[in-house]
Amino acid sequence: MIGIYFLKKNKEVVYVGQSIDIERRVKEHSKEKEFDDYSYIECDKSLLNSMEQSFILQYNPKLNIAKYEISTIPKKIYPCSDKILRVPVNIHKIATKKADENGMTLKGYITHLIKSAK
């Protein structure tokens, strides 16, 4: 099964990953990461990177250590039940700088990015 998986602890997403064999990959994680549940969404292999990045940016899971430059934010923001967009510290710093350069507030700049991604 190809797709994006979400490791959860106490119903909170603590890790987002991608795999061409989700079941095998989740079993591997059970040896090294602490979680009590998982879910997944299937997707085409060509979408794995962009979808994984989008969900990492959306959930900001504490076990993900990936760093993304503002230019690598995918053009699509994928919907999910979480209404809050949590942004990693490095992205926050870059976005704040870009907002200042464009004479915008951070909230206004992020809203602009999301609207232009649709």
How would you describe what is shown here?
This protein has helices at residues 22-29, 48-59, 89-101, 106-117, and strands at residues 3-9, 12-19, 37-42. The relative contact order is 0.15. Residues 67-85 have low confidence and may be disordered. It has a 3-stranded antiparallel beta sheet with strand order 2-1-3. By secondary structure, it is an alpha+beta fold.
**Looking at the chains present, what oligomeric state does this protein adopt?**
single chain
Helix and strand succession?
A: EEHEHHH
Largest sheet, if any?
A: 3 strands, antiparallel
Strand content bin: 15-25%
Shape call: elongated
User: What's the average pLDDT?
Assistant: 77
**CATH topology name:** GIY-YIG endonuclease
State the CATH superfamily name: GIY-YIG endonuclease
CATH architectural grouping? 3-Layer(aba) Sandwich
Instruction: State the end-to-end CA separation.
Output: 27 Å
Helix content: 25-40%
Structure class? alpha+beta
Number of strands: 3
Major sheet: arrangement of strands? 2-1-3
Tally of domains: 1
Outline:
The protein is an alpha+beta fold. The chain is built from four helices and three strands; from the N terminus they run ββαβααα.
Set out the fold topology.
Layout: E1 3-9, E2 12-19, H1 22-29, E3 37-42, H2 48-59, H3 89-101, H4 106-117
Helix pairs in contact: 3-4
Sum up the structure in keywords.
single chain, GIY-YIG endonuclease, 18% strand, 118 residues, alpha+beta, 3-stranded antiparallel β-sheet
